[in-house]
Amino acid sequence: MPRYRYEYLEQELKQQIRSGYLQTGDRLPSIRSLCRDYQVSKATVLHALHRLESEQLVQARPKSGYFVRTPEYESPLPTRVQTPKTPAPVSVSAIFRDIMSQGAAFDILPAASQQDSLPQLTQLNRLMGRQMRLHPEQKAGYYDESAGKYSLRTALSAHLRQRKLRVDPENICITSGCQHSLFIALMITCQPGDTVAVESPAFYGVLQIMEQLGLNIIEISGDPVSGIDIQELQEQLTHWPIKACVVTPNFGTPAGSCIPPEHYASLVDLACRNDFWLIEDDIYGDLAFSSAATAPLKSQDNPQNEKVILCGSVSKSLSRDLRVGWIIAGGLHNKALQMKLITQLASPQAIQEGLAQFIAEGHYRRHLSQLRQKLQQQRDQLLAYLSQNWGQKIRYSQPDGGLCIWVQLPDACDSQAAYRSLREEGILLTPGTLFSAHGLYRHYLRLSFAQPLSAKRKAALDRLFICVLELSDKTSCQ
Amino acid sequence: MPRYRYEYLEQELKQQIRSGYLQTGDRLPSIRSLCRDYQVSKATVLHALHRLESEQLVQARPKSGYFVRTPEYESPLPTRVQTPKTPAPVSVSAIFRDIMSQGAAFDILPAASQQDSLPQLTQLNRLMGRQMRLHPEQKAGYYDESAGKYSLRTALSAHLRQRKLRVDPENICITSGCQHSLFIALMITCQPGDTVAVESPAFYGVLQIMEQLGLNIIEISGDPVSGIDIQELQEQLTHWPIKACVVTPNFGTPAGSCIPPEHYASLVDLACRNDFWLIEDDIYGDLAFSSAATAPLKSQDNPQNEKVILCGSVSKSLSRDLRVGWIIAGGLHNKALQMKLITQLASPQAIQEGLAQFIAEGHYRRHLSQLRQKLQQQRDQLLAYLSQNWGQKIRYSQPDGGLCIWVQLPDACDSQAAYRSLREEGILLTPGTLFSAHGLYRHYLRLSFAQPLSAKRKAALDRLFICVLELSDKTSCQ
Questions:
Q1: Residues B150 and B64 reside in one and the same domain
Q2: One domain, residues A320 and A418
Q3: Does some domain include residue B77?
Q4: Quick check: keyword Transcription regulation in the entry (chains A, B) (predicted)?
Q5: CATH no. for residue A250?
Q6: Segment B68-108, tens digit of pLDDT
Q7: Three-state secondary structure call for residue B131
Q8: How many interchain CB pairs under 8 A, A with B?
Q9: What is residue B127's three-state secondary structure?
C-alpha cells in the first residue's frame, strides 16, 4: 500500500501505462486535471510526475505537458555496411524508378491515407489565394525576380537565423524544391566523369541525378546516429579526386542520423584543405523534435573560403505541393542562379508571396511546433510497436527528428524481393537497396512515421514483416 | 458628290480613317449601329463595307466585326544574315544574362505596365483557389503523378487535337514551363560536345541551355516569313554530325516566322534519314491570329520513327506565373519523365487541376479568342506607328501571330550599344545580338506588341529609335 498521496498517484499512472490504457506517445492528463481528479495539490502531482520521469516512463515536453516515453526495451541500432572503395558510375534499375516514383510519399499504405487536419494549411491557402487575386494580369504578364520573390527570401533569411545561419536575402536563390536545388548544386560543381562522395545509405534522388549527369560515386559509410564517417571520407580523399560530397547533416533519410555539430568544423576544414564542395541536403532541418533548433552545416562554413552549398525546401516540413525550395551557394550564387533560370526560369509568384507572409507572420513557426509534436508521437508509437512485435528479429534507428527510421533485417532477408508481392496488396515497402548505387542494404528497409500508426497501418506493417522475414524464419538479426 | 447611299457611307468611313478618328486596329461601328446612324438598309452598309474591304482599308474578322487595317505603306521585310558555317561552343556574355533576365517580359517600358483586365484570369484563379481548398492535407502530403495530373494531360490532349495533333494523355509529361521542357529535350538527346542546329535568329533561352550543357551550335539562317532554311540545314548535315535541331515552326521569337505546313513532311523526312531529333518550341502555337489554328510540326511526325519532341506551355498564351509546360517526346517519353523527376520531382497539384478545369470547360478557348483579337489589334497599331514614323529608316517583319516583330536597322547601327543608356531611362531594348551565339544581328532588335501602344510607349519607342539611329543619321536600311 502506498504511504503517500504522490505514491498512490505514481502507481495509478504506472498501471495505466502498463495496461496500455496510456500508450507510447500519449499525453498524460494535465497537471490541473490530475489535481482535480485525485484531489491532491499541484506539488503532489509534480512530485509523482518527476518520479515517473526519473524512471524514464514519461517525458516532459516544454509547453506541451507530459508524454508516455518509448519503453526501455529498445532495439540495438542497425550495423554499418562496408562500402566499395573505388569510384563507379551510377546505374539505376527500372524497379528503382518505380519505387522512387511511388515511395516518395513516405507511406506504407497510401490507400489508408487519412491525414489529420493541419489548421495552418488552411491559413496558408488563404494567404496564397489572396495573393492570386491581387494583380492577376500583372502576374500573368511578368516573371518574378530571377532569384525569386524578395519577400520570400527575406522571410527565409529570418527563419534560418533562428537556426544560427546568417544569410542575406541576396544570397538565397528560390528553386522549385530541394530536388531541383540538389540538381543545380551538382550541375554547377561537377562535370561528367567527376567523382562525388555520398553519405551511405544515400538519398535516392541524389543517386538518380548522378546517373543522369554521368558522375562517379564513392559511397562513404554513415553511422545511424552520427552520419557520415569523416575518417573514411578523409581516407578516400587521399586516393581519388573528389569534387563534391553530398551530406545530410540533419535527420538524413533513411536513418535519421545527425552529424554532431562539434564535427562541423573538421568537415568544413577538410573541404577547404582538399578543395571539394560540401552539398548540404537540409530538407529535414526544420524537423528536429527537441526545442533547440539544429544548426545547418552551412552555419559553420568558412567565410573566407565558402565550401558549403545548402539545399532546402518546405516539402517535408509544410507541403510537398508548393514546389518551393532554395539554394544558398555562397561564391557560386550567380552560377546557381543561371542554372535555375535555364531550367525553371521562374516560380509562381502567388505561392511565393503567400508563403513569405505565412513565415513572416509566425504561422510557419506554429505549424512546425505542432508538426514536430505529432511526428514525435508517431515515432514513439512506431518504435513501441516494432519493439513489442518484431523487436527480437530486427534492429532499427531511433532518430530525434525527420520522418523515418532505418530497419535492419536478418542477413538472409531480401527486402527488394518482397517489394513486388507486397505492392500487389497495396503495401509500399521502401527497400534498402534504393539507398545505394552498389546494391548494398538488401536486408534493410526504411519505415516512415510521417503517417499516424492506424490499425490498418499496423496490419500492413505485420504483413510486411511476415513477408520479408519469411525466408529467414529461424535466424535473427545480428 | 456621291450618287448612292453606299458611296456616301463609304466616303464617310474613309474620311474617319484618314483623319485618324478611326485608327489602325480599331473596330468599326457595328452594322446595326451604322444602319441606325445613317438611316440606311443592312444591304447598303454591307455594300459599303465590302468596298472598303476590297480597297484593303478594313478587314472583316469572323464573329468580331470590321477593323481598320494596317495601311498599305508597309515596310520591306528584314534581310537575312549569313551565319558561320562551322560548329562552335556557345558562350553567353554577362550583358546577355542581364538582358535575358529583364527582357523576358516583352515590354519596352515596364514602369508603364497597366495591363488590360483579362476576365478569364479571374475565373482561372477561382478554379485554382477552389482546388487549393480541396483536401489540402492530402496535397501537402503526397506528390502528383510523376508525369503530371492526368486531368491536365487529358485536357491538353483534347486541346491539341483542335490543332490536328493527336496525342494520348499517357504520352504527355507536365513540366514547369517551356524553358524546362527545352532543357529536358536537350538533356535527353545530346551529350556535352555534341552539335545542335538552331534556327537563327534563335531563342536566347535555348542558347543559354546549350552553353550550360557544353553543346556546339550551328546557326541555320531563318527567313522572317518562312523560318528555318531547310536547304541550308540539309547542306550542313553533309558536313557535321548534328544530333538535334531546334525549330519554332509557329511564330518563333523574334521574327514571328512560320514554317509553311507544306514543308513539314520534308523536314521530318530529313530528320529520319539523317537520324537527328527535331526539338519543336511550340510556345506561341496558340497565338495564331487567323481563326484556322496552326498545326504543330509534331502533327506530321513519322509514326514509325518519331523524331519530333514538342515543347509547349501556357506562359505566353495565358500566364507566365503558372509555371506549367509540357513535353511530348514520343519514344523518349520515359527518358523525359525521368529527367523531369530528377529536376523538378512534381508540380503543384491545385494549379494543374485548376488549369485542367479551365481548359476542359472552354474558358481557355474563350480567353484565346479574346487575346488573339487584342494582340492582332496591338500588332496593327505598332506596325502603323512604325510605318508612319520610322518607315523610311527601318525594315520589319509582319507576323500573323505570336508576340513580336523583328526590326532591321541601317548596317552601321548597334542596338546593343544603345541598351545600357536606354536602360537608365527605364526603356528596355531587346538587342538583336541576344538571338545569336555568334554576335550576329547587331543592327537588329526585337519589338513586342504584347502591351497596348499607349502614349507613353509611343514616346519610349521614339526615344529608342532616336537613340539607335543616332550613329547613322544619314544612312538608311537596305
A1: no
A2: no
A3: no
A4: yes
A5: 3.40.640.10
A6: 886 655 678 888 888 888 888 888 766 666 766 665 567 88
A7: helix
A8: 186
A9: helix
